[in-house]
Each structure stands twice: as C-alpha cells, then as structure tokens.
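Recap from last week: sequence in, structure out.
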Amino acid sequence: MATTVDLIPLPGKVEWGATSGPFTGRVRTSLDPSLAAEAYRLTVSPEGAEITGGDDAGVFWGRQTLRQLRGLDAFRRAPIEREPVAVPYLTVEDAPRFAWRGLMLDVARHFLPKDDVLRYIELLAVHKLNVLHLHLTDDQGWRVEIERYPRLTEVGAWRRRTRMGWGDPPMWDERPHGGFYTRDDLREIVAYAAERHVTVVPEIDLPGHTQAAIAAYPWLGNADVIDTGALEVKTDWGINPNVLAPTAAVVSFFEDVLEEVLDVFPSRFVHIGGDECVKDQWRRSPTAQARIRELGVAGEDGMQSWMIRHFDRWLAERGRRLIGWDEILEGGLADGAAVMCWRWYRGGVAAAKAGHDVVMCPQQEVYLDHVQDSGPDEPVPFGWVHTLQDVYRFEPVPPSLAGTPHAARVIGAQANLWSEVTENRARVDYQVFPRLAAFAEVAWSALPAPGERDVAGFERRMDRAHYARLDALGIGYRPPSGPRPWQRRPGVPGRMHDKPRRPWHTA
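Predicted structure tokens:
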C-alpha cells in the first residue's frame, strides 16, 4: 500500500479497486455503531466517496484520508488546478491505536497569538491528532484571563526582557514580551477545535512554575522567607525555587482560578502541572512547616501530594479528571489522577502498574524542542538529538508493560514543544515539522516493534507526497537536507545534554 498511495498516518486495511480515475466531488457519509469510536470505512469509486464512521470523529478522520487522496489542492486555501484530480479507487478500514494523540504547545514561555493556535489545531486535524495541550501558565508568563484576579494578566502576562539561548554570560533580548488570551479567545479556540474533533486540555501549573502569578499577587509566595514583593515575571529559564505557599488562602485562590478555567474549557481532563516543585522555601518557611503539622502529612513531599489530592477531589466533584506530570507520584498519587510521563518511562510504568491512566511523552523520545541533528547549523541546539527517524521509532508502550494487562493503562502519547527558544511561528514550525508527521503515525497506526519499523518506507512517503502537503499548508518545516539559511540562528548559544539517550528497549 505504501508504495502506491503515500498516506500519513499509515491507514489500516486497504483493498484496492481495479482502476483509478477522476474524483467527482460527491461524498456520502453515515454512522455505523458497530464500528469503534473514531474508526471509519472509506470507499472511493467512480461515483464518488462514501465514508462510514463509528462516530462523527470517525467520519471526520475519513475525510482527512480522502483529503490526502485528492492531492495538493485539498491543502491550499483555494484550488489552483482546473481539472478534476485523479484518485485511486479503493476501500480503507481504519481506526486509531490510541485514544489520546496529542501535542503540547507551551504558550507561557513565548506567547503564541490566537490565530497561530487556531492554525495548529488545523494541522493537528490533518495528521489525525486529537488533543491540543495548552501550557498556559509558568514562571515566564500567565496567558489566561481570570476575571476575578485581573493582575494575573495585567502584571503576570508581561516580562521586561527575555534570555536568548543558554550561554554564559547570558545574552538578552531587551524587548518586553507578553500577551494573553481572553476568555472569549479561549472559547473560540475550544469551539474551533471541537469542529475538528480536537480536545483542548488546559494546564494551570502548581505548586511550582508559578513566579508570574506570585509577581502579580506576592502573598501567593513564601513571603516569610523571601521578599515576594521584589519578584518579577521571570526573564530567565530553568528550574525555579520560587513556588506557591501551601496555605489555605493560596489553595482557595487557585480554586477560584480553576472555576473560571472550567467555565471556558469543557475537556474531561485538566492539567495541573505538578512538576519541578523545589521545596527549599517550604523547608525554611515557618508558615509552611505549620501547615505540614496541621495537615499531618509526611514532610514537604507529603505537602505537595496533599495539594494534588485536594485538586483531584475538587475536579472530580465537578465531573473532571486531574492529569499532571509524573512528579505528582511523589508522596503518593491521588486515586483518580492520570499521569503524563516525561522523565523517561519510569513514572509511567509505575503509574500504570498502580492502576492509573498514563499518557507517554518521554523527553528522550518526543520533546520537539530538542535538536533535530548534530550539525553546527541547527538553531539554538538543545537537549538530545531527535531525528525524524528517531521519532518514528518511538514506542509509547514500554517493553516492561507490553503484553501485560497494565498496557491498557497507556491511553495515549503526546509530543511536547517547550518554547524557551521558539519565539514565533516560524521557529515553532521548524521544531515541530516534519517530526510531528512521524509522531502522528506512531500514535495512530498499528506499527511493528521499533526495531522492525519501515523507516525507509515512511521517508519515501514523506519525500513523494507529504513534504509537498506541508508546503501547500505553508509550514516552515526543517528540510531533510538541513536548515535553510534563514532558519539558522548563528550566535545564539544552545545547551546539549551530556549523557547519551537510552535505547527504547531498556524501558
């Protein structure tokens, strides 16, 4: 199949007709409850196309397959060819491997305007990805309007300058940077995504990665051990010691925040971060230590666990589910929480074996802010080298879970783009594509084990058809030959990991 029709992601069962010919433009759709959720059956014949879905999403994904069969004009804003396009006459029966097929966009470190977010929703749909995880808050910026607390955006959405790369001494872009989404902006994003069967999952990070909020409301921080009033929205990168105070008032504040978030985002899952919470200030804070004694929890890790459990219950009471980074395992995991596993596979394996749902997004495999090649022209090289081929070999279910009942707890996979050095749409495009196409196939298709995957076949499909689709869509991807001159960033220093990546089969 792959040698004849260059579809991405690779569909399931394909039955070929005897011929190919012009597409009439006629499309009939229907639902068949015997098909699984998101599954579809597509038949293309001289009479047109017929798409049967297990649900509306299945019909939509069938349309995406038909879109690829129809050629490049289907990806342009307006057709430029006058003649009907020739399509193969065939039948495709297809269904996704995973229910959660996601991309995380960090819009906190560098703000991405609303229209760019809408554009990425369309690009997710093209690749049959169905979750957009928006990282809305961090030390470097607060991007969601909260009417009850206006200073979160009046102060927290703006920083006075931005570090460029990771050099020593640091380099600075002295221009102020910021922006935020109004509640109506976010409602528009959610509605646009829903039309394309993409769920938008918001992330409000706590108790760490909160300096922008503390800069807006200093009483949120540990004011008994540091001068929180002197804190500004963070201009640098890295793990930050300035975290929330674990008081009842702070917890109430974030309940108020989340009430407004739930009013905008109907998604079942709500992400609360929970990662990289440095607890040094809690150890020194009399207020925090008194709170630990009051609650009877086991030290600072127990304090963080209490906060995660509290918001897990709070969300469950409102019909939602908490998901967080794998640090939420520390001190004990809330019963209903799901885990997003980013630190290799360890946390995800432990969570799955303990009966928790897991989304796999290990930084060693699918962090798209990491460099794509070891060559000297890569812009602001960071992390490990993740080539297109490396991403295609990513396996969301680690060997220690494969073939066990726990494997079903891996509900999906996600690629993550952190935005320390993706300051605009062009930089985002370069980091995300073409690797997101490889990730989409891994998340959708039933592929062989990583060592047995047809990497060469995937590359042929990219070369023969999919790069041209990306061109038609106007995506500034990284070419296979390396960055174009205008995609380089000479003089901006990067930071590469000094330890090699571990092979997937050690997970």
